[in-house]
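Render this sequence as a predicted structure.
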Amino acid sequence: MVVKQRTGGQRHKKFHITAEGFLGILVIILLIALYFLAGGTQGFYGLQNIMLVLRNFSCLFIAAIGMTMIIITGNIDISFGAVISVIAIVMAAVSSFGMEFGIHIFLPIGMIVGGLLCGFNALLMTKFRIPALVITLATMQIYYGALLWTVEGSIYNLRTNWTWLSFEAFLWDYVPLYVIFAVALLIGSMFFFKYSRFIKRLYAIGNNVQGAKYAGINVERTLVVTYIIAGVLLAFSSAILGTFGTRVTTTVGSNFEMRVIAAVIVGGTNAMGGSGKIYGTALGALLLSIVSPALVHMGINTYWMDFFSGLIIVVAVIVSAVRNFDFSRFTRKKETSA
């Protein structure tokens, strides 16, 4: 972004790179470096590995859209992994009724389940004035406990009506349908974030809740709708995760929420709310989707994945803090003392 300033009657151009722009440059540099460090077209850039990265990205980004909206309001939801697990088990159970119960049936059911569970989180949070972190920590345990109580570990021997999305739904024999959907969601959400009045309400809530109320925004209803949207989107991520095999476990979404939150924060969304861009979230999701396959092809143990993911988050937060720090106050102090 270029900012023009007047100084002494003249205009000077000041070049300023956004957090999203910085992240985009970092991703490009990383992709170029991996060509030389991770085996080229026979390693990281092999077709099978590219498909894995695209699958990881699609699953992570779709879930991160909802988390971006939630964090913009100054809230959070750490029950995402548990919700994804519940949705996956419900959808797998529906598909096991017969071959006619394909994705056109079990996916809408999963969307309803996701919307209800995340909406329930928001209702508890708004009606009882309980902090989002506390209530979603509690519901995470409730959802996992309910799964363990109702399901004996997993649902297995699922048929092709379940695995169709991961193994048969391709365009031109190479492009997975879920990747097309993720890209379509990216484009759609970019317009939604730029022009929607609803998103403007989220920014207003994240910047100043009381101010948003004075402006006539129904904060409670807006938060509930936001969480419901996030829950509906989780059904798509759950389908991508779950349909990659003929068995779905009750822990299929375990710790997934940490990766989603990381993608959002790395993408430049303010952890305290009030600001964030969806294309930044997409870049954050892409960066984190690259980490694990890159480590494999560089001969590094994948146990280091959490370390590098955490390091990326720390660097992103530090860069954001440095960019937002008001260095001009030191200049003002010097001028005053002089």
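Summary. The longest strand covers residues 2-7. The chain has one domain: 47-316.
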